[in-house]
Amino acid sequence: MRRTALIASAALLTGLIPLSAAGTASGADDPAPVPVDRFEGEVPFASQPAEGIFTWGADADDPPTLQLTDRTDAPEGAKVLSGTYDISGYGGFTHDFAAGRPAHDWSAHQGIRFWWDGQDNGKKIAFEIKDGGANGEASELWTTSFTDDFTGWKQIQIPFDAFTYRTDYQPVGGIDHVLGLTEMWGYAVTLPPGVKGRFAMDDVELYGKADQSRRASVTTDSAVYPVREGGTARVKVTVATTGSAPLDEPVTVAYDTAGGTAGSGTDYTPVSGTLTFPAGTVSGSTRTIEVRTLKDKSAEPAETIPLKLAVTGAKAPAETPQVVIDAHGLPYLDSRLPVRKRVADLLSRMSLEEKAGQMTQAERAGLTSQGDIASYDLGSLLSGGGSTPTPNTPAAWAQMIDSFQLRAQATRFQIPLIYGVDAVHGHNNLAGATVMPHNIGIGATRDPRLAEKTGAVTASEVRATGIPWDFAPCLCVSRDERWGRSYESFGEDPALVKSMETIIQGLQGRADGRDLSRNDKVLATAKHFVGDGGTEYGSSTTGSYKIDQGVTKVTRQELEAVHLAPFQTAVDRGIGSVMPSYSSLDIIGDGQGPVKMHARADMINGVLKGRMGFDGFVISDWNAIDQLPGDYASHVRTSVNAGVDMMMVPYTYKDFRTTLIDEVKAGRVTEKRIDDAVSRILTQKFRLGLFEHPYADTSGAADIGSAAHRAVARQAAAESQVLLKNAGGVLPLKKSQKVYVAGSNADDLGNQTGGWTLTWQGASGTHTQGTTILQAMRKAGGDVTYSKDASAPLSGYDVGVVVVGETPYAEGVGDVGNGHSLQLSAADQAAVDKVCGAMKCAVLIVSGRPQLIGDRLGKIDALVASWLPGTEGDGVADVLYGRRPFTGQLPVTWPKSEAQLPINVGDASYDPQFPYGWGLTTLTKVPAGGAATLKALSMAAAAAERSGSASAGREIVTKARLLVQQKAGSALTAAVAGPFADADHLLLTGKYAAAVAELTEAYRAVA
C-alpha cells in the first residue's frame, strides 16, 4: 500500500484544547459530534479497497505496531488504539475509508478532534486528512501537527482551517488545491523518527458547526481585466459554498475603485457600492460590477484600476482584482514597424527594474503567487521536466499559460511572457503527445529531411498548447557512452550533428525568423554551449555524478573542430536562443584551467556572439549560476557579464532580480550590458508575434498525437533501427513464422521512450499513449508468444526475438557508475541465453547508448540497436517484418568493453565491436565485383564530388560500404574498423572520393 505521509511539513498547531475547554467551545446549536474512529473494533486492520487501518514506513522496521487495547482509563468506550515504534526514516498509520463506496462529507463541521495519551517527549506528530480524488490513496493530503509535550490523555482539537496543503508529497500531484471537505477519505498519523516510543489514541470525531465564513467564499472570474481605452470592464463576483449548499446568512461585498496608476475621473469613471447575496442564495450565484474607462488623445502605457472588495460573511478573494487600460499609441505596439525600431522604442521607456525582470525566468511551480509575474516584471516562465498542469491535457496547458500571460498584461508595457519547455523528443511533458526517438536514434537515421519533419511535428504540438519556446535541440557531440546524456546527442561525429541540424528549421522555420510567428513554430535553443559531450569521466563535482557537469579538457583545435562546429551551423540556421553548459571548459595552454561555461565571457561574448555573429539571446541552465565560485552577487555579476542574457532561476527569481539591480546600481554590471540582453530577449518576443498574440492559438491542438504526427514518429523509429548482425538472414521475420518474444523491454512503453518523458527521469510502465514493440509485432500480423523472462516453454518456435536494454534515466543520474552500467541486467542476460540457446534469435537492444554484448555475440544470430524509439513501436515492427528496410547506421562507436572508453571515430587506436557508421541493410543488394567494383565506384565518387552531386555521392559511398560490410561480416578487426568509420565521417563532409578510398582500404584489410 502506498505510503500516505512522510514528514510533517506544516507549522505547529498553536493551541491544544483539553477536554474541559473543548466542552465549552461548542455552541448550543452545534451538530452532535460524528465518530470517525472509536477503536472498539468497528474498523478492522485492513487496507484498500476495504475500509481499514494499516501501517506504513520507509523500510521493514519503520511501520509501528498496532493493537486495540482494553484500557480502564479510555476516554470513550472500553478500548483504545495503542502501539510502539522505533522509526529511522518515516512511519505511521492510516485510516482509509472504503474505496468502493462514496467518500464522506465533513463540510458541516468545524474540525476534527481525538484523544492522545501524551508521553511528554517534546516531539511533533503530524496529522493529515485526505480530500477529493478517487480514493484514500489517490487524494489530496492536507496536514498539520501537534507537539507531545504533556502527560496522560488530552483531547487534540483541530479546526479544518488549520490544515495546509502538502507541497512535499502528493500521490496524484494535487487535484484542485482546495480543501473541499465534501469528499473525505480518512486521516493519517506520522510518528516521530529517531526515538523509541509508544502511543495511544482514542475517539476520533468531527466536532462543531462550520461557520459560514469557512464554508462560503467570494471570488472574481479573473484577477486582471485588460480593456481597451474607452471600453468597459465587467467584473463578475461569485459566491460559492462548500458542498454547494445555499447561504445560511447574508454575504455583502462592498466595492470601490481607488488607487492604481489610472486617474479617477480622467482615465475612468469611479464606481463604488455594495452587493448583497441574501440568506438562501444558491451557491454559484454571480453579480457584475462594471468599470467604464475614458478616452483621451494621448499615447500611454498601461494603467491600472484596483477594484477593492470588502467581504462580510464569507472569505474574500485572495487578491484585489485589477482593471487594466491597455497600452496604446506607442511605437513599439505598431506591428508595421521593423522589429529593431520596436525594440529600441520599448527599451528606451523601460526602467532598470523592468529590464531586470525581463532577464529573469522562474519555474511556474516556483511562483509564490501568480501576482509576482507583474510585481517583478518577469520576462519568462518555464516548466521543468514533469512540471505539468492537472489534468495533463492540451487544454489545461493552454489555459495555464494563458492565465500567466494575463498577469503580464498588468505590467506597464504589457510585455508578454515567453514560456519554455524541454520538448527534446516531441512535446514530451504532455500526456498523449507524439514522442519521437531520442536524438541518438535520429542520428542513426542519417536522414536530414526526416530530422526536420520531427522538429516540425514537435513545434506544432508545443505551440498548440500555448508554448512558444523549446529548449532543444541538444547539439552536444557525445564522446563517452558513460555520459547520462549521451542519448540527447545526435552522435559522436560533429559532421553528423551538423547534418541533423535541419531539425532547427523544423522547429523555427526559415533562418531569417520570418516563420516564428506562425502557430506551428517555436523558438529553438542550441544547447549546451560548449563541450558538454566531451567531459572527462570522474571529473564531475556534482553529487554522485561521474561525468555529467564535469570538465572538458581539449586543445584549441579540438574545441573548434569537434565541439564548436555544430554551434556555428546553428547560428547560420538562425537559432533563436543558446543555453550554456553546466560543465567546465579547460583549454590546454590558455592558462585559465577549468572554468564553468556560465562564466566564460571569452566563449559566450567572444566566440558565440562576436565571431559567430549570434543575434539571439543566451538562457542559463537550471540554477546553473549557483555552481559558480563566490557569493550570490558574484554569481549574478559573473554570468551576466559573461554574456548570459536570461537567467533560469526557478525558485530564486526574487533574489536574482534584486541582486542584478543592485549590481547595476553599484556599477559592477553596466547598463549597456543590460540593454544588450533585454534587446535580444525583446527581439525574439517580437519575432514570435507575442505582442500581437500573447495567448494560446489552440487551432492545432486536434493534431496533437494525430495519425499524421505519429506516422512521422513511426518512420523515425523505423529508420533509426541499426542492424548490426544478421547471420543467416534471420531478419526480416516472416508472418508465417512462430515467434517467441521475451525480454524486459518488449512490452514496456516507459523503457521504450526513456528519460525526459512526462517526468525528468522518465519511468518504466505505461504513462502515455503509444504502442510497445510487442503490441506492434502483434498488430503487424505476427504469430507471437510472449514470455518476459523466457520462463514459458521454448520448443516449437521458428525464431526468438529478445528485447532487452535499459530503464529510463536523465542527465548525471544516468551516468555509468552512478547506479547504472553498460552491462545488460542479469534478467536480460538470462533471457538472451535461454532463447538464443534454444532457437535462432534476434536480440533488440532498446537503450540510450551501446550495451556491452560481445560475450554473447556468438550465440546471437541477429542484433539490432533499437535505441529509444519513442511511442511508436510500430516503426520497429515495420523493419522486423520487412514492411520497411533496415537502413540505420551507428551514430556512435559500439565498444567491446568499458575499458576502451572513450572510443570515437578518428582515434589512433580504434578496435570496437562495431565501428561508427556500421549498419547492415535489407534494402539494396550488395553489388558484385569486389575490388573491381570499388575501383569503379572510386572514379564515380570523384566525378560526383566535382559536379557537387550530393545524392549521387551518398549513393556511391553506400554501395562501397555495403561491399565492405558483406565481406567483413562480424569478424571485424581494427584494420577494418578504422578506415570504415573514417569513411562515414568523410561522406558527411562531402568528400566522397576520399570516403571510397577509406572503404577500399577497409575491404583490403578483411582477412
From TrEMBL:
Signal sequence region: 1-21
EC number(s) per entry: 3.2.1.21
Alphabetized PROSITE patterns for the sequence: GLYCOSYL_HYDROL_F3
Alphabetic keyword roster: Calcium, Glycosidase, Hydrolase, Repeat, Signal
Keyword Hydrolase: yes
InterPro entries in alphabetical order: CalX-like_sf, Calx_beta, CBM11, Cellulose_Degrad_GH3, Galactose-bd-like_sf, GH, Glyco_hydro_3_AS, Glyco_hydro_3_C
Example of a GO MF term: hydrolase activity
Pfam families: Calx-beta (PF03160), CBM_11 (PF03425), Glyco_hydro_3 (PF00933), Glyco_hydro_3_C (PF01915)
Main EC class the enzyme belongs to: hydrolase
Catalyzed reactions: Hydrolysis of terminal, non-reducing beta-D-glucosyl residues with release of beta-D-glucose
This protein's record includes keyword Hydrolase: yes
Residues annotated as domain Calx-beta: 205-310
UniProt similarity note: Belongs to the glycosyl hydrolase 3 family.
Protein name: beta-glucosidase
Species this chain originates from: Streptomyces gibsoniae
